[in-house]
Each structure stands twice: as C-alpha cells, then as structure tokens.
Amino acid sequence: MRVKSKAAVGLLLGTVIGVSGCLSASAESGPKASQTGISTMSIAAVKVQSTDKATLPKSKAAGGVTMQGDVVPQIIKKVSPSVVGIIGRTTNAESKDQGDNRYNLAHGTGVILKSDGWIVTNTHVVQGLTNALVVTSDGKSYNISESFEDEVSDIALIKINAKNLQPAKFAASSQNVLVGEKVIALGTPISFSLRNSATQGIVSGLNRAVNAAYRLIQTDAAINPGNSGGPLLNMKGEVIGINSMKFEAVGVENMGFSIPAETVQYVVRQLFKYGEVNRPALGVSLEESWSAIVGLPGDEPMTITKVNSSEAKKAGLHEGDVLYRVNGKKISSIVDLNELLKSFIPGQTVTLWLESDGDIVTRKLVLSKDTGSSEDAGSEADDS
Amino acid sequence: MNLSMKIFHRSGVILLSLALTLMTCGVYNAAHAAGVQVQELRLKVGSKNAEINGSAQTIIQPYQTHGVTMVPLSVFKKAFEADIKLGDGNTVKILKGKHTITLTLGSPVIWVDGHKLRSESAPAMLHNTFMAPLRIVASGIGAKLSTGEGGQIVVRLGLDEAADPAGDGGMDIDTGKTRIGNSFYGWTMQYPSGLIPGSSGDESMATFSDSEDTYYLEIHAGSRISETADVDTLMDTLLTSARNSGETVLDQQVFPTAKVPYARIVTTDKDGSMWQERAYYGAGRIYTLYLASQTAKSYKDLQKYDALLNTFEPGFNREDKSIKDLSKVKNGMTETYNDDYGISMQIPAEWTADNSHRVYTGRGGTSLSIHAASAPAGLTLDSWAAQLQEQSKRTFLPEAFKWKGTTVVEASGEKALLQQAEYTYGGIWYQEKQLLLIKGGYRYLLDYSAPKELESGKDRFQDILTSLDIDFEGNAEILGSLEDYYFLSDTTRSVLKTSNNYQYTVSIPLYWTAINERYEQSQAEYQFPGGSFKLEADSSVDPDLTVWQLRSYYTEAAKSIKDFSLQSIDNVTLAGVPATVFRIHQTVNGVPQSKQVILFSDSSGQLYRITTTLNDTNGTPEQKAALEKAVQSFKFAK
C-alpha cells in the first residue's frame, strides 16, 4: 500500500480537533458518567465588585486564607447558571457499526443567550446529534425544540422550552480584549458528569487565522473535548468568545481557540433573521500566496484560480487575476476576506482592485450568495 | 520546534489553480529560443493594437496628455516580464531585474531606483485601468525608446539588461515557479502555493500533500515501454493496481478525447480512505496518479481536485523557468547515499540502488558493488592489489581472466588505485574496474562490471568515480573492526552450519556468499565466482521415486537437448548413507558449466538434495576443492 510520507510535510504540527466530547463505547466510562452530582451549585447571582484591581493576586495572604479580592470564583458562580451541557446520540458514519451501542454518545457545552430558551453552541456539537438533551446548571433536562446550524462559522443556535433562564452577557466586542487578559473557560470536559468545569488562563493572541473561516481568539486556558460551545469569559464575567477547538498533538500545550463574540453575534443575528447566514461571496476561487500560508507578515495578494459566479464573469474577472483590495481594504487571505464580507449581504456591489495580466484595474462586482460549495471564495465548511 | 511555523490557515475550500498560463513565459522562451537578444514593444497613441515581440496584442489604447504618452502597465509585463504590484495607498510598483519604479495614482512624482523624478503627467485611471507615463517607466527599467514607421513608438530592452539579478531569492525558494514536474521522468503539473512536495528516495515516485492537509497525492512514472498505451490499457493498469491492493472501485471512466487521454477510477481502500486514480501515457511511459482525500465521503467529493489533476501532462520543458524541477538527475546521473559507510556518489538514473547491500545494478549486466572493511596493518594499495590479483587466479582459469593494468587515480580526495581486467564465463566478455582506497584504517573497494562492448556513453564508471565522496572522518567515529569476506583470499577457511530441525551439519567456505540460509526451513543456497551450492531437504516426495524420475529425465534430456550431456550416475556413500550422484555438463545462457545433483535420504526417509554448479571458466583446483569439501562435510547429527 502507499505510505504517506508525513515526515516530509513537516509543517503541520498539531491536529486541530473540535473539542466536543465523545464517550467511547468502553464499559469503564459508564459508571463514572452516571455520577452526575454537581447539584449543590448555588444559583444566587453574585455581583462582581471590581475588575482589574481585584484580579491582582494577594500573594501576602498565604497560608490557606481565602483571597477575598479574587474575582474568579465570583465570576464562575455568576455565569455558571448560563452554561448548559448538551448530550445526545451520535450518528457519524465511522461508528455506524456500533449504532445500537447505548454508550455511543457525544456531548458539548452551550451558553444561554435568551431567558426563553435560546442557547448558542458550536455547530459541531449539535450536528448529527439525535435524541439530544440540554442540561442546565440546576440539573434540569430539556429536549431541543429548534436548531439552526451554521457550518462555516461553527456557530449554532438551539432552543429549549424553558423560561426565566439566566442569559450570559456577551461582550459588545472582543476588539477591546487585550492579549494577556485573564480569562475563564466554562464547559463540560471529557465526561458529561464534569459539567460546569472551570479553567483559567490568559488571552494568548487575537485575530488568529487557523483552520476556520473567521479570526479566532487564542487562549491557554485548558480546553478539552466537551468544552466546545462553552464560554470564554473576561474578568467582567462577559462572554468574549465561544470555545471551539484546540491544537492537539504530542508536544503541543494549551493552544485553545475561541470564536470571538462579534462573530457569534453576527451569525446569531443572521440566524434569527434568515434562519441561515445570508453570506456573500465574490464568486471566484482564490489561492493564497505561499507567504500567507506560511504565516509571514506582509501583504502578498491572493490569485483568482477560477471564476465561478455569473456576477464575477460579468464584472470581467479572470483566472490569474491578482486580488489586492476589496472596497479599499487590503486583502491577503481568505479569512481577511470573510471578515470583511461580514458587513455585506449578497446583491451589494463592491469595488475590487486587481492586477490583471500586468494592468492595475478596478472592477465593480455584485456579491453573489455563498452556497457553501468550494466554488465560492470566502468561507469554508470545515469539520474538525 | 518552531511553533510559529506550525499554525496553519485552513480554509477548507480547496482553491487550486487551473491552467494559469503565463503569457510572459511563452514570450520569454520565444525570445530565447530564437536567439533574440532584444525584447520589443511597438505601440501607437490612440491605437488598441500593439506589437509585442513580433506578435499582435490588444491593449487599452495609449493616450497623450501634456505631451506625455500614457500606457497601461500590462505592456511592461507582456513585453519585458516586469512584475506589477499594487502597494499601499495608491502606489504601484514596477519591478524588473535590478530596477524598481514606484508610481502613485494622481501624483506626478515617480521614484526610479530611489531617485525622485517628476512627470509632466500623473498616472491616472482610464477605463478602470491604471495608466502610466511610458517614457519614464520604460527608461526606468533600462529600455530604449525610438520612433517607428507611421507614428509607432518602439521600446526595446536588451536581454542582458533584462536579466534578473542573482540574488538569494529570499525564503521562498520557489518564487516564480508556477508549475512543478520531473525533468528526468518527464511530467509537469500546476504548482499551487499550498502544494507541499514530499521526499522520496526514488524519483520515479513523487509525493505531495497540501498545506491544509486535506489531500495526499502520489505521481508514479512507469519504466519506459516501446509500445503505445491506449486508454483501455491505462484503465487496465489502474484496475489491476486497485485489485492488487484490495481497493473497491466506485467509479471508472476513460477520457479518450482529453488533451492528453487518460483513464480515471475512484476507489475506497481497506482503511476507508477515498482515492482518485488516473493513468496517462506519454513519452514512452505510463504515469499513474493517486490522490487520497481525508474529507471525501463520495466519489464526487474528489472532483474538486480535478482542477489540479487536470493540469498534469507528460513532458517537461527544460527551457521553461517557471517549472520547479523535482529531479535531481543531472546528465543522466542521480545521487545515492549509503548511510552505513557514509558513501555518496552519482549513479546512472535508470540504475536500481540497493543501499543496504551496497549493490547498484543497471541493465544488461552492468553493476557496481561497494565493499568496506578494516585494513590489516601494513596493507598498502599495491599489496592489496596483488592480493586481489591472486584471488582472481583462484577463481578464474587463466584463459578466462586478463589483467589490463593498474593506474593511480584520485577518489574522494584521496590517492586510490584503479585496476582493470576483462573476464568471461564462456560467453561474452566483461570488463571489470576495481577502485582500491585505503584511509583511516579502513579499505574501500568499488567493483564495477559491465559488458566489454558497451554502447558509447553507457560506461559511466568515470562519472561515478568523480562523484564518489566517502565520509572518512565520520567512519572513524562510528565504525569498529570490520571484516568483509569478499576480501578473503583463503578459499579453504570454512564455518559450520547446523540445522536443528533436520539434524545435520555442513561446512561452508567463508568466501562464498549466502543467497539464503534458511537451514531450519529446509533450504540454504550460496554463490561464489562462477558457481553455486544449494542444499534442500524435501519431505514431500519418495526418495526412490525421485532418483528414478531424475534418472529418466536426464537420460531423455541428454538425447534431445543440445549442449547437455549426462556424464555419470554414481552410487556413493555420503554422511554414512547411500547417495546417488548425477553429473551433468550443460550450457546455460551461453555459459558452459558442470552440474552435480546428489540425492540421499536419512533413516526416516527424509530426502536431501545437494545441487552444485561450476562454470568451466571458473573450475580452478581451489574452487573444485572448496566445493567438494563442502559436499563431503555434510554430516547427520548423532
């Protein structure tokens, strides 16, 4: 048989995995999973008193004294009621042989968006999940009544029939987030019995373009399978991102990624409005430059490798054209483009700056609708 | 580990180039091929028709303002292969060789190689196209302007001026490479920026993955065939390979009218991976492409890779500088490396290299073997050469082996000795070249054999010798005391071999080479110059019947087969039991040889068979004695 010469590739280190948990069919995990006893969790909301000052560690208070100023326990206590566990039967192709195995389950996490039962989570958590249950922090279980999934952003919206839930507060924008800022991740790592597990870390980086259609927040807070769909919180207790994946390989430590709040808000708004994300596309296939793939700084442009939409043909775009700018904004990667296209809808017109066989030209292009196929530039549908 | 290199953008959308044919490459080649020393652009104000290196082109029509001729930038790319880039703000860069020109839309200030110039007319947009002052840009890249007939403006650039500066090219070693291929095996394909070539010891197979790790591709070049392969043959090639590797075919189609006709199948393998496989024929070879996708769930999902695979074509244009050449073959030679003894050298590309045994084989009886061992104290090149000559006397009869002289040469930076000889096994004559080198306590021998009458250009020994590079220092660090029985001049030294299963022992001369030594599985076989020895135990047959069958077979063969004679059938005693010895003389592939087959059985009825051969030319007293001693050494265990 052919042997894949992985060593030669050498560039891709980690496997990016979506961090939704998956119970294996092993008997050992059974009894443990049944010990779901975190019911002592207090629901009383605690007001967070302060932000930055309170985060300073009181190292003098050594010797087991409670750090009174530490805001972390208070945030966890405050936000936990807004975090839910989601579990269901999986129906992925790989496990069809075990279709009648009752341990064939997968789980993840969700964040309550509205008090009447709207919950935001990752698409890869709920996609293909059947007989799913949503378990709130007070131990109540609900069936999912409605579900809207966007594969491209990996954000999904589900509804349970509940009232008076406590919604999480989303940060207006993660643009104000600083690298190094303390963050807390809440979720359901590994076992469904570990609901409302909290981990903490810092924001390791912003605007990361890794394995996703949009830019991500990087954090070193421990994110494990099952954390998917859970919140990444700042020290105000606001959701700055939805944890969705991490790099996983021997030698890779603490490289989790979170979908920023504004991307979540963009998708959620679209899902509420259209039931899907009405996503525009340039209608061409684009190839990133070598330096963009490697991750070198710079602005090497993308090249059009195929003209797909009739709009793009009408605009006079050609294979081999080099795309520099869209509406005056410099674009050098698919992620750049996707971020830019968030503020457009199909049918709107944009101006492109291109190099076409040596000429520097401008073209007016009517944005087409992204159908999710590989023919549309921008976006992606990547199951990790 | 450099983590920053490991993070990858992954778009999930596989964006692969279709035939991104660069005009400039064609023009470049045309200019070079014709021996043209000048690239030329002819255009006219107010006319859409331009002439670029002799061929007509349509451009945005040049216009004149404030006495300045304004032209679209494409003319500089098409005529002179200048790179045109859009920079920050409204700046545009024109790069050609050592020249850089920076223009700003709406600004009369133009920078040429760091010098500020002022144009009477600023760059402007016309028909959505950036128009630039012709004279200032053309002069800036080193071109000369003149007036042609009918108001034409002629811009000429000498090729020496056009030459790119020899820089290190930066980190991207493949800048400007838009296609990839192998010049030796003759194929070419698109080179998308995300394609990552893998490494393969054998150039006939190239492997690729992509930066998003979504697919894996292998391209195999078959050996040269004299017949043309049609699409049915191509399809059969794919189906046979799929069957042999246990794949299930999901889709099969032939494309006889494609630019290069090909066959295509989609399969799923035992691991559940999906493959698109293609076979092409061209330039005397069959090429097979295997692409596996980690994400494909249906055969249709593999169609998105067609954009890349459709660009595959047999053939490689060495003149085309936009092709990245994966081949390390230069002048028909390729690098090979033996890790054990730190030996690297160039061998003919079509040879087969067995680096673990240090044997390199070409077609038609050409081969090279390398031997390394500790050099005994006091050994000199001359004394070693004398030993090798003595050795040849023990293995070849004088009329079959002629020394052709010894010369001093340099190899791997050291003084070495080259001994030449000619020998025959009774058929054609061969030439032998032995390179002897002693360094750092070790001796190295390159033993090259080829038919004496070689087509011109086929004797590459000198090229191999020139390229030889031995890591003497490394060997001194790593190697201890080494012995190679190839150097053994004593034909009488032997070692005892035991079979526990079959309860016997036999003594085998040390100078013989083992082909296999499966004593516990009933078989052992050895070779030595011009001869062989084989010992088998066979429990599946009746000993008496076998003797009878062989007797009648040989008797019959002697009557009907030319150059075959049954010389004797003797009953002897071997290992204390009765044995039958058949002695035959025959000619195999033009080589006259003696053969003996000895059959005997132990007390339980187990049949043993010893078969020996010895070429007439190698029937020296030493070799005959060694063979006879080995036969007689067979003893049953007590």
TrEMBL record, chain A:
InterPro entries xref list: Chloro_Bact_Ser_Proteases, PDZ, PDZ_sf, Peptidase_S1_PA, Peptidase_S1_PA_chymotrypsin, Peptidase_S1C
Annotated ranges, domain PDZ: 280-362
A biological-process GO annotation: proteolysis
Xref: PROSITE patterns: PROKAR_LIPOPROTEIN
Signal sequence, renumbered to the chain: 1-25
Lineage: superkingdom: Bacteria
Keywords assigned by UniProt, alphabetized: Hydrolase, Protease, Serine protease, Signal
SUPFAM superfamilies: PDZ domain-like (SSF50156), Trypsin-like serine proteases (SSF50494)
Single GO term (MF): serine-type endopeptidase activity
Family that this chain belongs to: Belongs to the peptidase S1C family.
Name of the protein in question: Trypsin-like serine protease
